[in-house]
C-alpha cells in the first residue's frame, strides 16, 4: 500500500474512532465534581450506559417531563443499569419553586448519592440551576461565579431567566445564613 494511502487511511480511522467516542458522550457533558457530580443535556440510553460505566454513576437526576418518550426510555435504561432515576420536572427557562429547589438539593447534596448525573434537554438553564445549587451550597460559590459557568455552557442570561437568577440569589442567601453560627442567624 502506498505511504500516502496508508496515512490517509490512518487519519480516517482515527477520525472515526474520535467521532465514535464523542458520540457516546451527551451534549454539553461536563465534570462538576470528579467522582461526585456530572452534567449534560438530554442523554440516550446508549450514552447513559457509557457514562454510567465510565464514571461509576449511581444516580440520575432528570429535570425533564417524566412522561416524554425520551424520559421513559431513559428511566428504563437507568433501571436496567441498576441506577436510581429521580425526576424533578422544571420548565425550560430554569424557573423553579423553593420546593423544587429543595428536592434538587436533597439529591445533589446527599452524602450517599454517589456519582450523580444531572441533566435537562440542552444542559443549559435547568441543569445550570441544579449545578448552581450544588456549587453554592457545597462549594461556596457566589452567584456571579455560577452565572459565569452557566454562560460557558451556553446560558444566554435573558430577561426570561429572571426567575432563575432570583432563585440563585435566594439560595445564596440561604447558604450564607446556614454557614453562620446559629447565634448569629436572624430569626423570622
User: Number of helix segments?
Assistant: 7
Q: And the CATH topology?
A: Protein-Tyrosine Phosphatase, Chain A
What's the level 1 CATH class?
Alpha Beta
Share in helix: 40-55%
Order of helices and strands: HEEHEHEHEHHH
Q: CA-to-CA gap between the ends?
A: 80 Å
Oligomer: single chain
CATH architecture term? Alpha-Beta Complex
Q: How do the strands of the widest beta sheet line up side by side?
A: 1-2-5-3-4
* Poorly predicted ranges: 6-21, 180-188
Shape assignment: globular
Average pLDDT score: 88
Rg on CA atoms, Å? 19 Å
The major β-sheet equals:
5 strands, mixed
Q: How are the SSEs placed, and which strands pair?
A:
Layout: H1 3-23, E1 30-33, E2 37-40, H2 45-55, E3 59-62, H3 69-80, E4 84-87, H4 98-108, E5 116-119, H5 125-139, H6 143-152, H7 162-179
Parallel strand pairs: 2-5, 3-4, 3-5
Antiparallel strand pairs: 1-2
Structure description:
This protein is α/β, with parallel strands linked by helices and 188 residues long. The protein has a single domain, classed as Protein-Tyrosine Phosphatase, Chain A, CATH 3.90.190.10. Helix content is 52%, strand content 11%. A 5-stranded mixed sheet has the order 1-2-5-3-4, sandwiched between helices. Strand 3 (59-62), helix 3 and strand 4 (84-87) form a beta-alpha-beta unit. The longest helix has 21 residues, at 3-23.
Amino acid at each position: 500500500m502506498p505511504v500516502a494511502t496508508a496515512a490517509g487511511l490512518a487519519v480516517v480511522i482515527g477520525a472515526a474512532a474520535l467521532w465514535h467516542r464523542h458520540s457516546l458522550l451527551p451534549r454539553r457533558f461536563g465534570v462538576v465534581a470528579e467522582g461526585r457530580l456530572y452534567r449534560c443535556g438530554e442523554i440516550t440510553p446508549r450514552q447513559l450506559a457509557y457514562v454510567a460505566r465510565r464514571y461509576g454513576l449511581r444516580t440520575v437526576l432528570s429535570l425533564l417531563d417524566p412522561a416524554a418518550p425520551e424520559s421513559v426510555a431513559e428511566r428504563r435504561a437507568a433501571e436496567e443499569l441498576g441506577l436510581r432515576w429521580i425526576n424533578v420536572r422544571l420548565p425550560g427557562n430554569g424557573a423553579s419553586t423553593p420546593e423544587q429547589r429543595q428536592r434538587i438539593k436533597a439529591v445533589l447534596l446527599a452524602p450517599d448519592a454517589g456519582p450523580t448525573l444531572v441533566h435537562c434537554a440542552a444542559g443549559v438553564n435547568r441543569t445550570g440551576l441544579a449545578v448552581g445549587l450544588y456549587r453554592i451550597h457545597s462549594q461556596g460559590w457566589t452567584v456571579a461565579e455560577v452565572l459565569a459557568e452557566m454562560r460557558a455552557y451556553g446560558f444566554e442570561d435573558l430577561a426570561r431567566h429572571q426567575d432563575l437568577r432570583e432563585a440563585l440569589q435566594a439560595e445564596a442567601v440561604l447558604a450564607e445564613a446556614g454557614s453562620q453560627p446559629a447565634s448569629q442567624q436572624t430569626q423570622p
